């Protein structure tokens, strides 16, 4: 497999395929965001109950990935991915047919359990076939492909909502799952050779998580990348009601705003792919955390001023864009530190992202966010913790080099 990827065309097709698989999470969330108020009305549910469907999706996504990583390190990537995508497809059908908020929430949790397989194992596949530095560059390119999902999904979701109602958004997610299942079945070979699979029992394979949680370098990377993700999910959860309900944006206008932020992620990942070999993943991740905190500070100040919506938009753009400088670098550094457990390392990182995103989403759903101040406060706190995590990582990384 590695030698075959010396062909740039085949390598490019692999990155395109894996980027599409990582898009499971963003697509399954962003496509139905413009429909959240309509779902609440259609199911006779409160906005908080419908927002909970985002929270439980993040929880299921994180939980599922924690299982898939070590299992794939032990038994290979392809079969595990096919099982997860199949579960995602069945649960997407259940979401489309839901008749109550409770049914939707339960189906979303199962949908997330399945979708986590594609998202985490796509990253592990890249680490299987590339050395660390090139893997980080390819992760950035893959993230550019993935960024197309939040760029286009809300726009598509708003059109599906207009023509087919909110159930049409879940029908589109179902079709995406079926297409992905077919593509993996026919186009993705197994990338983890038998000789590279662990000889430990499955139970001991899961024990790598204990090592990760006791490693301050790993904890720093998890916080740096994960808390940036939490800031983004505070925006994802709070912004539909802030912009559509409070400031009377149309679903289409909100979708365009969302697309601009996704374009920022795309641009940041492109910049990272060009600079990472020269500047180093550690330095670029630090820049991302620092600039993200500046954007969060602007958001917090602007959210307290009635007519400062343009400044709120700018602050959110900066915060969301900086996830493009943190995700690929942090997970790439973590997988390079644990090369024999790349699946588990990727699973821990991405599960941490979605787990922390779940907490920020749950905070906004629980407290309510009629003015945008809760969203801004959660974004600010998350961005500060992201920068603190980078300092923790950098401190122990430099100490390790000194030793």
Topology:
Blueprint (H helix, E strand, L loop, with lengths): L7 H15 L1 H7 L5 H7 L4 H29 L2 H20 L3 H29 L2 H33 L1 H22 L14 H5 L1 H6 L2 H31 L4 H29 L1 H23 L5 H13 L1 H15 L4 H26 L5 H30 L1
Explain what this protein looks like in three dimensions.
By secondary structure, the chain is mainly alpha-helical. The chain has one domain (17-187, 201-402): Growth Hormone, Chain: A. It contains 17 helices and no strands. The chain has helices at 8-22, 24-30, 36-42, 47-75, 78-97, 101-129, 132-164, 166-187, 202-206, 208-213, 216-246, 251-279, 281-303, 309-321, 323-337, 342-367, 373-402. The two termini are 37 Å apart.
How would you describe this structure in keywords?
0% strand, Growth Hormone, Chain: A, 403 residues, mainly alpha
């Amino acid at each position: 497999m590695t030698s075959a990827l010396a062909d740039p065309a085949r390598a490019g097709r692999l990155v395109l395929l894996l980027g599409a698989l990582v898009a499971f999470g963003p697509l399954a969330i962003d496509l139905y965001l413009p429909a959240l108020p309509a779902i609440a009305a259609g199911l006779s549910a409160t906005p908080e109950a419908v927002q909970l469907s985002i929270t439980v999706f993040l929880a299921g996504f994180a939980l599922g990935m924690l299982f898939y990583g070590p299992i794939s390190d032990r038994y290979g990537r392809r079969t595990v991915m096919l099982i997860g995508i199949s579960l995602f497809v069945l649960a997407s059908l259940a979401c489309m047919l839901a008749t109550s908020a409770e049914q939707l929430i339960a189906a979303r949790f199962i949908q997330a359990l399945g979708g986590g397989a594609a998202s985490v194992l796509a990253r592990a596949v890249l680490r299987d076939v590339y050395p660390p530095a090139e893997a980080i560059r390819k992760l950035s390119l893959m993230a550019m492909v993935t960024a197309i999902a939040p760029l286009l999904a809300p726009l598509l979701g708003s059109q599906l909502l207009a023509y087919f109602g909110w159930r049409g958004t879940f029908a589109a997610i179902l079709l995406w799952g079926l297409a992905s299942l077919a593509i993996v079945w026919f186009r993705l070979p197994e990338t983890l050779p038998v000789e590279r699979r662990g000889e430990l029992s499955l139970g001991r394979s899961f024990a790598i998580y204990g090592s990760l949680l006791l490693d301050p370098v790993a904890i720093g990377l998890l916080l740096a990348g994960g808390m940036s993700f939490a800031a983004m999910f505070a925006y994802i959860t709070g912004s539909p009601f802030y912009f559509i309900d409070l400031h009377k944006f149309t679903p289409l206008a909100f979708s365009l705003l969302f697309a601009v932020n996704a374009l920022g992620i795309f641009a940041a990942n492109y910049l990272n792919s060009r600079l990472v070999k020269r500047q180093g993943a550690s330095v670029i991740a630090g820049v991302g955390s620092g600039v993200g905190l500046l954007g969060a500070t602007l958001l917090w100040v602007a959210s307290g001023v009635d007519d400062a919506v343009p400044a709120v938009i700018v602050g959110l753009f900066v915060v969301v864009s900086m996830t493009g400088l943190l995700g690929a670098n942090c997970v790439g550094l973590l997988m390079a530190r644990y090369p024999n457990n790349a699946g588990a390392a990727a699973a821990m990182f991405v599960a941490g992202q979605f787990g922390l995103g779940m907490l920020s989403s749950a905070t906004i759903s629980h407290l309510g966010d009629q003015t945008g101040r809760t969203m801004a406060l959660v974004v600010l706190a998350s961005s500060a913790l992201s920068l603190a995590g980078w300092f923790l990582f950098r401190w122990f990384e430099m100490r390790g080099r000194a030793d």
